Amino acid sequence: MKTIDNKKPVLVTGATGYVAGWLVKRLLEDGLTVHAAVRDPEKEHKVHHLNGIVKNSPGSIKYFKSDLLDEGSYAEAMQGCELVFHTASPFTSEFDDPQKELIEPAVKGTANVLTQANETPGVKRVVLTSSCAAIYTDAKDVLDTPNGILTEEIWNTTASLDYQPYSYSKTLAEKKAWEINKEQNDWDLVTINPSLVMGPPLNPQATTSESFNLLKQLGDGTFKQGAPKIGIGLVDVRDVAEAHYKAGFTPSAKGRYITSAHNTNFVELGEALEPKYGDSYPVPTKALPKWLLLLIGPFLNKNLSRKFIRNNVNVEWRADNSKIKNDLNMNFRPMSETMEDSFQVLIDNNII
């Protein structure tokens, strides 16, 4: 059990990120000093939204130039911190070389930050942003679990460099983190494992994440004939930030935490938008048949391989979120709120 002194600064890596932004906001509103480790603190458009939050908060922020692949680049930022939030990691499905663009930054970056924690006196806890992708690859994997539901005990064994390399990168990075953690006794490790994260970004210029590509497709007519009924979990970005915060400051927090609010699918995401936006936007409310997807999927989107369609379409996704509710007293927003707030950002910024 580690008690964190909130008078000490707190490090957030990848502080300009989607989840990290809301976490930084929460820390600043609580009056903490945030050490924000970012790649380009000089780029005003990257940190503009954080500077705006500081103006109206009792907390303060200091920027540090750090890079996932640059050994020792987190040393200065970590000085004096008892608590480290490691949120920085690549998240994309657009890559030419998965080893170089996904695996190496995820694994080396994690090793860099956690090795630095070993070398920095006073660090008591590291909260790592992992993913449900480190637990499963395809919705079909749920069927192979002991009780037909994903839990924190389960690890992803089906992703590889050739199939779902993003999931593979998250699995390897989290395993690396636990490996480094077990070699020492100074700091404990808590991992937050979110499912698909949606919700409004604090920096609308940063709507390039995968979840926003999907959100855009739900409103731009891509799925007007119907959406693939792909089984997924969904969680609000604001809830993911709160989960990190609680994982940092709850002395008894330990191990992995599935951070997912809803067991759902792409069609239900469309249905959640329909009451408010259905008259103005072609949001999908019906499912495309699986046989049709098997025929046309690979032409619609290179990520819709036949294997992916077989393993995820019309397959129910289920995860057990009782651990985070019990241990960290987490409550989750309703799906309609998450979907509407996200979609409205796209409308307000003329992205859709």
TrEMBL record:
Source species, domain of life: Bacteria
SUPFAM superfamilies with a match to the protein in the record: NAD(P)-binding Rossmann-fold domains (SSF51735)
Domain spans labelled NAD-dependent epimerase/dehydratase: 10-247
Descriptive protein name: NAD-dependent epimerase/dehydratase family protein
InterPro entries per record: Epimerase_deHydtase, NAD(P)-bd_dom_sf, NAD(P)_dehydrat-like
Pfam families named among the record's database cross-references: Epimerase (PF01370)
Keyword Oxidoreductase: yes
Recorded coiled-coil stretches: none
UniProt keyword annotation of Chloroplast present: no
Family, per entry: Belongs to the NAD(P)-dependent epimerase/dehydratase family. Dihydroflavonol-4-reductase subfamily.
Record key words, sorted: Oxidoreductase
